[in-house]
Structures are given as C-alpha cells and as structure tokens.
Amino acid sequence: MSAPSGDLPAEQPPALPLLSTLVPSAHPHTITTPARTGTNVALRIHTSLTVFEVAAAPWAPAVSGFVVTVLVHSVDAATGLPRHLPVAEPGEWARAIFADVDAGRGYFLGAVDPDTGEHRDAQLAYRLYLDTDRQAIRVPHQVVGCPHYRMRTGDGDPEIRIVTTA
Question: Which of 5, 9, 52, 84 could make an SS bond with 161 (beta carbons 3.0 to 4.6 A apart)?
C-alpha cells in the first residue's frame, strides 16, 4: 500500500477488498470517495471477483482461476451524472486494490464494459487474472473480449497516493 499523503481524509480512509479472501459474488464490493483530482467529482469503485475456466486452444493451455474486475465510475458529486476525470487517479485505485496480490500484473481495459467491449462514458475498467491459488497470471488469450493493456507502473508515472485501510 502507498504511504499516507494527506490528500484523503485520514479519519475515514476507505477499506479495500482483500483479493486473497474475496469470494465470487453477484454483488461487487463498492467504495464511494471524493476524487482528489477534480472539483465536485466522486468516484464509485466497484470490485468483483468471478470464476473462469477455459479450454485449451492452439498455442494456449487450458486454465482456470479468477478474474478481478475493477470499474471506476467518475460522477458529479451532487447530481450523480457522469463527469470526466483523467486516468491517473482511477488507475492508482486499481493498483491499490490489486496490490493485495500483485499490483504489477493488472490490465487497463479503457472506457469500456469489459464483458461487451462497448464504450461507457465516465467509466474506466481494470482487470487482474488469478490462478486457483490466487497468484497473478497473464491474461489467458481465450478470455480476451476487448483490448487489454498492461498497467503502467514505472517511475515516470504521476503518483497519486491512495490512503486506505486493509
């Protein structure tokens, strides 16, 4: 986890889901928090865990495990309507959630619905794939329904520290 930066109120830091113990559910774990990089913008962060199992394909072995999906919706804090927010802060939230297992193995899917590949205003999607032992793995080729881009974690990235409770 990142060290406290003073940007989020220390009195009530949001609790992140623990991917090592999160169970598959029809209801995502949800965090709502004010965005620090925009005025009157709130982030609604939905984290879900689903099971996958895919058959072998040419040049790809059969694999099963879990898909962690993080959807970050940026909305107007007063009206709930979609608002634009640069990707730095939503990406840091996704890395903070993935850090329970491996923050360096996540994928950025963009402003899409990860299941359909359709564009979604004010939503950014991230995914992490885990094997049955909850270890991070590369995205199995058989499950790619939309482009997956490795999340950047280099020193050149703008850093936004997310203060949370584990």
Answer: 5
* Residue pointed to by tokens 């927010």: 85
Q: Which of 97, 122, 84, 88 lies closest to 2, judged by CA?
A: 97
Q: What is the pLDDT of residues 85-119, one digit of tens each?
A: 888 899 999 999 999 898 788 999 999 898 888 88
| Angle, CA 61 vertex, CA 65 and CA 69 arms, to 5° | 30
List the structure tokens of 49: 């865990």
Tell me the C-alpha distance between 143 and 34, whole Å.
33
For residue 48, what are its two tokens?
């879900």
Residues in the chain: 166
Fill in the DSSP letter of residue 10. T
User: Do residues 164 and 16 lie in contact, with contact meaning Cβ atoms separated by under 8 Å?
Assistant: yes
